[in-house]
Amino acid sequence: MDCEFCGGDGGPVLWRDGFCRIVRAPSQDYAGFCRVILNRHAREMTDLAPAERARLMDAVFACESALRELFDPDKINLASLGNLVPHLHWHVIARHADDAHFPDPIWAAPRRASAPPRALRNDVSDARLGARLAALLAQPAA
Amino acid sequence: MDCEFCGGDGGPVLWRDGFCRIVRAPSQDYAGFCRVILNRHAREMTDLAPAERARLMDAVFACESALRELFDPDKINLASLGNLVPHLHWHVIARHADDAHFPDPIWAAPRRASAPPRALRNDVSDARLGARLAALLAQPAA
After folding, report:
1. Which strand (E) or helix (H) includes residue A16?
2. Does the CB of B138 have a partner CB in chain A at under 8 Å?
3. Interface membership of B95 toward A (CB under 8 Å)
4. Residue B34: strand pairing partners
5. Tell me, what's the ipTM?
6. Residue A142: closest C-alpha in chain B
7. pLDDT tens digits for A115-141?
8. What is the spatial distance between Cα A90 and Cα A106, in angstroms, rounded to a whole number?
9. Cα–Cα distance between B85 and A11 in angstroms, integer?
10. Contacts of A95 in chain B (CB under 8 A)
11. Dihedral sign computed on CA atoms, order A31, A57, B9, B130
12. Are B35 and B91 in contact (CB under 8 A)?
């Protein structure tokens, strides 16, 4: 199938189960940027059964929680677009007021150079982020 | 509170209950563009209780279903950004391959003039879209 996300690409895998995987998006501008990718091929959320939608959103919300804890964002951005790669995946992005595009979405033209690295944002390793996701996804939603 | 979405603005209301409302986004380029807006003020999905997250996503998915039925899109785009207005709201957008930005997100620079009106896309009145949403939201998720 001619879909790059069916093949498993997309960046270092932080967490996965039999249903979906969470990767860290390769990005020079955004250290706190994860993608949640459905393992099997589907295009739209409403192509999933309601329980599957909820399961995928639980992974999205775990990413949001982990990014809020580890990157102290000014805002979280969530998006499922897929116009280029119509395989269900969610972008979960920690945004800061001094990032390259704020307050625009990251798909707009940049407004400024990327903010200088801050320890808080950039010392978060894949292993640390993955461990936090595993902890969040191991516990039932509160 | 200095938040434009707390005041109820945002376009014609298609459906509402005590928890959220669905408005049609005023847009010259996108006839099939709804916003789901939480009534009370909250910034992020993870500021909501899990049952509230699910309730808001059910409204988002009802919009997706209605837009797929009525606008025959090539792709649905879902996004919760809120960098400018940090009050929880979801964009639900029916995208077509000949729309102004495709395959880019609608927040990128336009690639072309808007597609000429098509009856399928533009004859969908607020009343018709609202009636479909009401029907979808009245039935439990299948």
Report:
1. strand A13-16
2. no
3. yes
4. B24, B92
5. 0.93
6. B50
7. 665 545 668 999 999 999 999 999 765
8. 14
9. 31
10. 83
11. positive
12. yes
Of B82, B103, B109, the CB nearest to A83: B103
With CA atoms as reference, report the closest residue to B59 among A130, A46, A92: A46
Could you give the count of Cα atoms lying within 13 Å of B131 in the half-sphere of its Cβ? 5
Q: From the CA atom positions of chain B, what is the Rg in Å? A: 15
Within 13 A of B84's CA, how many CA atoms are on the CB side? 5
DSSP run (H or E) holding A70: helix A50-71
For testing the chain A interface, which of B69, B72, B83 should be mutated: the one with the most A CBs within 10 Å? B83
What's the pTM?
0.93
Strand residue runs (E) in A17-125: 20-24, 33-38, 75-80, 89-95
Helix (H, G, I), strand (E, B) or coil at B137: helix
